[in-house]
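Pilot study result, target chain (319 residues):
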Amino acid sequence: MPELVVTALLAPSRLTLKLLRAFMWSLVFSAALVAAAVYGCIALTHVMCRPRRGFCGRPRHNPPVCLSDPTLGEHCFLILRSSGLRLHYVSAGRGKGPLMLFLHGFPENWFSWRYQLQEFQSRFHVVAVDLRGYGSSDAPKDVDCYTMDLLMADIQDVILGLGYSKCILVAHDWGALLAWNFSIYYPSLVERMVVVSAPPMSVYQDYSLHHIGQFFRSNYMFLFQLPWLPEKLLSMSDFQILKTTLTHRKRGIPQLTPSELEAFLYDFSQPGGLTGPLNYYRNIFRTFGQAIQSAEVVTLPGKIQGAWIQSLVRKLDPS
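Predicted structure:
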């Protein structure tokens, strides 16, 4: 069939897709403006309640002592083969068993896995990374540097760069979204997987389309689509919105000490420390509408509380 005829036949479909995409982005940015107004009021309220903190986050010049706790492991860096970026990770138990790789979420870092690093280092080589854009890892400024394909390539480079052919992948929140996709596209590199508090992206999207309330609960995702403003709002009143998120009685981290809270805030308080993590969200609608896919990897869903640690030990190491 002549190319001109094919182009003419496809033209209506291409136009329809462009119109649907334009309509979707108009809805996204409309929701982003509404979310910005809401979070702007919240941030201003924090400033008025704590005027001494001012409108900016206080820069932390020295990391808290808990970040250098030697019982958690050794701090190392790995140059990623695919991108050339330098990734920071904490490692313990090398030579004591298979690789157990931990991927954190937002607003967190490798320190989220401090208890797991201590618990499993006697029988696994445990590695908790700072994902690209976080902590001491390299943080490209361009939003296009945080696509799902590039982030999955980072995980592949970590596993192979550490000298392994597969791993036990343990992930939470954004790390879990990466882990789900990674187990689908790189199943040979994942022996088993433990996912905490996050469904596959396709399942989340399908659920959100059928339960409009989920969009309201995820309103921060719309805010994060905007440039520079989310960074400003999150840092106001010395990062009070992040503090509230991390210490929330129901949705935060249980029994978080002031020093541990500073372990998370330290990296975000550095110049540009919030931009990399927020760029993950700025890519999230680029894959909206993807088909639901199944993972072939043995997977254990879980929650980080109570007996979850011991349950995980038994399931991963029945002996």
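One observation from the pilot: The chain is about 45% helix and 15% strand. A full batch analysis is planned for the follow-on phase.
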